[in-house]
Design brief:
The protein is an all-alpha fold and 408 residues long. The chain is built from 19 helices and no strands. The radius of gyration is 44 Å and the shape is elongated.
């Protein structure tokens, strides 16, 4: 009797739980079987599915919070393998169907919500890169909003032999002094910009200076002064000018060194996207320069100029910071599923209508007895066909017959 009861008891739970791929139903089914000390192949399969589903559900909830793409794909793949469909799994699956840009936007919101600075920086950089790649022509240097129009810039020079040639050379290497800033700015900053251009020429060897290695520090100090912020975009435009079509290899080398020195100290402001696109096309390797720039953007400009020792280190090819730490997501640990005991399942109130083991067993015992009774009834021999009872004895009828016979 007990074997039949347990088989019926667990089978009803197991079938429903397997069909629904439901964590709660699986937990109840396994807990009930274990409460009887009942172990079969089906119980083992249910336990394995319970553990798998429980683990996937925990990870799906975490993946929904992080929106880490590889993590989401892994969770969805494993959920599909067991036909698991929950709200978290559906949400994560939906995220993976979004376009790359829209997914990044959602990831940025998620990183902001959980205050993961490294993840936020990484996604922000990815979004900026996609914006540039979608319409690269818009981010050419000539389209920087504060860059002067070449013709207008050339017109600012009072005396020139060839104004058209001057305009065409606005953003090309030159050994001559510039007559006006390359970007729109007020007169005091315009004067500073022209002085800084001579300083750049001196550092690169295009203009003679006694101690050119000291000039980089002067540029940094000037641009880091709070009231000179407009000079930062100007400096990058001047560097790009001097690195464009420069025939002197020594001058080029010094120019790229000065580019790195500046990027280590302060980043472009309004011209960030234009400088990024230009570096992608011209720097070697581009990622090195762009990573330095991004590190400076996210960590902030330095308060003080680099020391001469630091400048020398940069010129020798050394980084002054970690180019990956600032954009490394905060490590996360995957949760671990711990299956509940039968008492925990029942105490949680998630066991549904399932009765306690003793009551459940009583129910199945009653069902068993009813089945046995029904079986016994079915095994009894059939009743014989119904026959009418014999007629009652009638003395008058007998006498009448005898009298009749006697008369005969």
């Amino acid at each position: 009797m007990d074997a039949w009861i347990l088989n019926q008891f667990f089978h009803n739970h197991q079938v429903e739980a397997f069909d629904a791929v439901d964590q709660t139903l699986l937990e109840v089914a396994v807990a009930d079987a274990e409460s009887f000390g009942y172990e079969t192949k089906q119980v083992g399969e249910a336990r394995s599915l319970r553990d798998n589903v429980g683990q996937i559900n925990l990870e799906a909830a975490q993946a929904r919070e992080l929106l880490d793409e590889p993590y989401m794909r892994d969770v969805v793949t494993r959920a599909e393998a067991v036909a698991l469909q929950t709200e978290d799994v559906k949400y994560v699956s939906g995220m993976l169907l979004l376009s790359e840009e829209k997914l990044c936007q959602e990831q940025l919101r998620a990183a902001t919500k959980i205050k993961d600075k490294g993840r936020k920086n990484l996604v922000t950089i990815k979004l900026k890169t996609m914006v540039i790649q979608r319409a690269p022509a818009l981010f050419a240097i000539k389209n920087f909003s504060r860059l002067r129009n070449p013709s207008g810039w050339a017109a600012l020079k009072l005396l020139t032999m060839d104004r058209k040639k001057l305009a065409m050379g606005m953003m090309r290497h030159s050994k001559n002094q510039i007559h006006a800033s390359l970007t729109e700015m007020d007169k005091p900053h315009d004067k500073e910009a022209r002085t800084l251009f001579k300083t750049i020429q001196g550092f690169m060897g295009d203009r003679r200076y006694d101690f050119p290695e000291l000039l980089a520090g002067e540029i940094l100090k000037k641009c880091l002064e709070p009231h000179n912020r407009p000079l930062r975009d100007e400096i990058y435009m001047q560097l790009i000018k001097q690195l464009t079509q420069n025939p002197n290899q020594e001058s080029l080398l010094k120019g790229w060194q000065l580019m790195r020195i500046c990027l280590e100290c302060f980043a472009p402001l309004e011209s960030e996207n234009q400088v990024t696109y230009w570096l992608e096309k011209n720097a070697k390797p581009p990622n090195l320069y762009i990573d330095i720039m991004h590190r400076t953007i996210f960590q902030g400009a330095r308060r003080n100029a680099l020391s001469q020792e630091e400048i020398k280190q940069v010129m020798d090819g050394k980084l002054l910071g970690d180019n990956s730490a600032f954009k490394t997501p905060r490590p996360f640990q995957k949760p671990s599923y711990d299956p509940p005991t039968w008492n925990e399942v029942m105490a949680s109130g998630e066991g549904g209508p399932t009765p306690p083991a003793a009551d459940a067993k009583a129910v199945y015992e009653e069902q068993y007895e009813e089945q046995q009774y029904d079986s016994a009834e079915e095994s009894e021999p059939p009743m014989p066909p119904h026959k009418p009872p014999p007629p009652a004895h009638n003395e008058s009828a007998d006498w009448g017959t005898a009298e009749h016979e006697g008369q005969t």
